[in-house]
Design a protein that fits this description.
The protein is an all-alpha fold and about 70 residues long. It contains three helices and no strands. It is elongated and about 55 Å long.
């Protein structure tokens, strides 16, 4: 898969704080952003609490009334 670039605009102060935090962890800013993006995508792809409950209800064995 070929890599592509992504340009974003942020406030100068936020950028400086972010870069400082990355340096403290000895991590390149690009690596931190990629990690965040992967986690965000995974979280958004996971079912929400309501969706998970709906899935469990549909998968539960049906009960016949007595």
């Amino acid at each position: 898969m070929k890599d592509v670039g992504l340009r974003i605009r942020v406030q100068k102060e936020l950028r400086e704080q972010f870069l400082k935090a990355c340096r403290k962890q000895d991590k390149p800013a690009a690596q931190v952003l990629r990690e965040f993006m992967r986690e965000y995508v995974a979280k958004q792809s996971a079912p929400t609490q309501g969706e998970a409950e709906d899935t469990r209800e549909h998968m539960a064995p049906s009960r016949k009334p007595r």
